[in-house]
Amino acid sequence: MLFIGTYIPLHGVDVILRAAKILQTQNVDVTFRLLGKGQTYPAMRRMATDLDLVNVRFEDPVPLEELPMAMAGADILLGIFGLSNKAHNVVPNKAYQAIAMRKPLITADTPASREVFTQRQDAFLCPPGDPVALAGAVKTLCEDPQLRQSIAQQGYDLFQRSFSIAQIGVRLKAMLQA
Question: pTM for the full model?
């Protein structure tokens, strides 16, 4: 399980940590790798200590060119889970990166994400700000490798159809010729 980010409130790292606690309590064998640092990082480190989390690893940021290797080593990639207006109105780059890597994505079920993704088809969507739902999504994908693989493949297919450089070029060319 991998989260990559700069710890801005949009990311909802607190939700990830609370979900990790739920899964730890349920003895679900999963480790959350949190890659990055930023605005709420010190508070999230304190929260992890207060929750006595043993299934969370905080890791330093890596150079941009090393991100694909970090992502390739993950079974599941995490998007955003915050409750801000911005969280409801954006699909972060990390979501597109996840599907481009043919990795299953779990992210918040928001109006913006619903414009791009279909639940349990090309992403696993859960209510924003809801650690119980996130823990359930993680557990479901950990226990169902077929669903995990299906979401990864269909997410990748979506990326190739709609968000690859070639497809963006086709759309841009059509707009410029109009």
Answer: 0.94
